[in-house]
Write a structure and sequence with these properties.
The chain is mainly alpha-helical. It has a single domain, classed as 434 Repressor (Amino-terminal Domain) (Orthogonal Bundle). 61% of the residues lie in helices and 0% in strands. The protein contains four helices and no strands. Helix 1 (3-20) packs across helix 3 (36-44) and helix 2 crosses helix 3 (36-44).
Amino acid sequence: MDKKEFQIEIGKKIRQLREKKNISQVELAALCNFEKSNMSRLEAGNTNPTAHTLHIIAQKLEIETFEILKFKTLPE
């Protein structure tokens, strides 16, 4: 998995976790004190989030940070 694929998987996971909590992208961005456009780029996999950014998102989703990184990867 290359860097771009990894970012896309993180974004998909954030979106899945957000939707599971019935929170809109705008609401999560506001909770995290992020611009909506930044949250959109994160979920689209168009930016490489820092560990701190993932920690903030996890806190607002009331999950452990590592849960964002739990996704299936295909063997290379």
